[in-house]
């Protein structure tokens, strides 16, 4: 059971690279889909209404 130092050097492979469409580091190399904008899966930009939580308008 040797944990600690041997486990530290296990980050050599990249899963996400820079997306061509949005420029963020969220394009999955193997799945060929951007998790931020949806490039590779959809021609439209990925977006959901639950992401932007708008505050309710105050009614007096």
Structure, described:
The protein has 60 residues and is mostly loops. The chain has a domain at 14-42: N-terminal domain of TfIIb (Single Sheet). The protein is 7% helix and 7% strand. It contains one helix and two strands; from the N terminus they run αββ. It has one helix at residues 5-8, and strands at 16-17, 27-28. It has a two-stranded antiparallel ribbon. The radius of gyration is 19 Å and the shape is flat. The mean pLDDT is 87.
Structural class: little secondary structure
The main β sheet shows up as: 2 strands, antiparallel
Low-confidence stretches: none
β-sheet strand percentage: 5-15%
Helix content percent band: under 10%
> Mind telling me which CATH architecture of one domain this is?
Single Sheet
Distance between the termini: 64 Å
Order of helices and strands: HEE
CATH topology of one domain: N-terminal domain of TfIIb
Oligomeric state of shown chains: single chain
CATH top level assignment of one domain: Mainly Beta
Strand order of the largest sheet: 1-2
Radius of gyration using CA atoms only: 19 Å
Quickly count the helices.
1
Please report the total strand number as a whole number. 2
The geometry reads as flat
Mean pLDDT: 87
């Amino acid at each position: 059971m040797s944990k600690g130092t041997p486990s530290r050097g296990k980050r050599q492979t990249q899963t996400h690279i820079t997306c061509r469409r949005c420029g963020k580091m969220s394009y999955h190399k193997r799945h060929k889909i951007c998790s931020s904008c949806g490039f590779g899966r959809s021609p439209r930009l990925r977006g959901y209404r639950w992401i932007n939580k708008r505050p309710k308008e105050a009614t007096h």
